[in-house]
């Protein structure tokens, strides 16, 4: 979806009338992403959801310093990205933002009440059960110079492998977690993607294929290209 604009905090919107449009969606993203546009920062999950929902959006780019200043802290108490603004509503936490989008637009949650509840369960499972050891791996890498890290790293990898074994068994040869693609898959694929550089995902071919299926969705590609365009410009 090409109908969005990237602009820096405090700069003028692309078109002044956009300010007057009801319910314009604005999200925040890193002004400079540490990953240089690999799509690992969490604005990518929100962009992807908005693309799946066919919703135009604007992106306000924020610096690390601006994220800790009062204007941004009023939107995000922890001084992070992404945030989501729509009319009077301001949200933070990627899972909550994706759920909000999925609830209001067709295509990201099943209509059947029980299937919908199961999809929400899997959204929580992605961020509460599968993501924590994956995040721990990132932290362990950042703290690679610590003496105890040599002993810690295998333990972290074991915890990840344990979760991937369980997820792989559950998924089997299904395309998606529970029937058709949903916000649950969007969240789970996004979480698993962070393992790409480690090679651990390839130990489970069905999970590697699952992630590749997610990445090949046109909405994912549009979201990825949009964030890459920001950081490619800034290199
Ligand atoms: N639980 C929150 C959510 O899901 O929205 C977590 C949000 C969060 O971690 N935001 C990060 C942030 O703002 C960016 S996404 N960090 C700055 C800070 O805390 O000061 C995490 C992230 C950052 C960078 C990469 N990368 O470079 O690969 C990947 C993921």
Task: Walk me through this protein's architecture.
- The model is unreliable at 1-5 and 7-21 (pLDDT under 50).
- The protein folds into two domains: 4-107 and 219-234, Glutaredoxin; 113-217, Glutathione S-transferase Yfyf (Class Pi), Chain A, domain 2, CATH 1.20.1050.
- It has a five-stranded mixed sheet with strand order 1-3-2-4-5.
- It is α/β, with parallel strands linked by helices and 235 residues long.
- The protein has helices spanning 43-53, 64-67, 70-73, 94-104, 113-142, 149-171, 183-193, 205-215, 218-234; strands spanning 5-8, 25-30, 58-62, 83-86, 89-92.
- The protein contains nine helices and five strands; from the N terminus they run E-E-H-E-H-H-E-E-H-H-H-H-H-H.
- Bound molecules: S-(P-nitrobenzyl)glutathione.
């Amino acid at each position: 979806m090409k109908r969005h604009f990237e602009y820096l905090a405090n700069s003028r919107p692309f078109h002044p009338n956009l300010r007057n449009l009801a319910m314009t969606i604005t999200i925040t993203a890193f002004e400079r992403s540490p990953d240089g546009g690999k799509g690992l920062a969490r604005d990518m999950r929100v962009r992807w959801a908005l693309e799946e929902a066919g919703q135009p959006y604007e992106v306000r780019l924020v610096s690390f310093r601006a994220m800790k200043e009062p204007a941004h802290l009023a939107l995000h108490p922890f001084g992070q990205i992404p945030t989501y603004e729509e009319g009077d509503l301001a949200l933070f936490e990627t899972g909550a933002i994706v759920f909000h989008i999925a609830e209001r637009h067709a295509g990201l949650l099943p209509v059947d009440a029980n299937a919908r509840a199961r999809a929400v369960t899997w959204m929580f499972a992605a961020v509460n059960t599968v993501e924590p050891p994956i995040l721990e791996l990132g932290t362990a890498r950042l703290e690679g110079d610590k003496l105890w890290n040599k002993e810690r790293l295998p333990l972290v990898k074991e915890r990840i492998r344990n979760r991937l074994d369980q997820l792989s068994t559950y998924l089997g040869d299904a395309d998606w977690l529970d029937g058709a693609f949903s916000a649950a898959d969007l969240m789970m694929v996004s979480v698993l993607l962070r393992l790409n550089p480690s090679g651990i995902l390839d130990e489970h071919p069905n999970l590697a294929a699952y992630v590749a299926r997610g990445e090949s969705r046109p909405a994912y590609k549009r979201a990825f290209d949009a964030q890459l365009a920001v950081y490619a410009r800034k290199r």
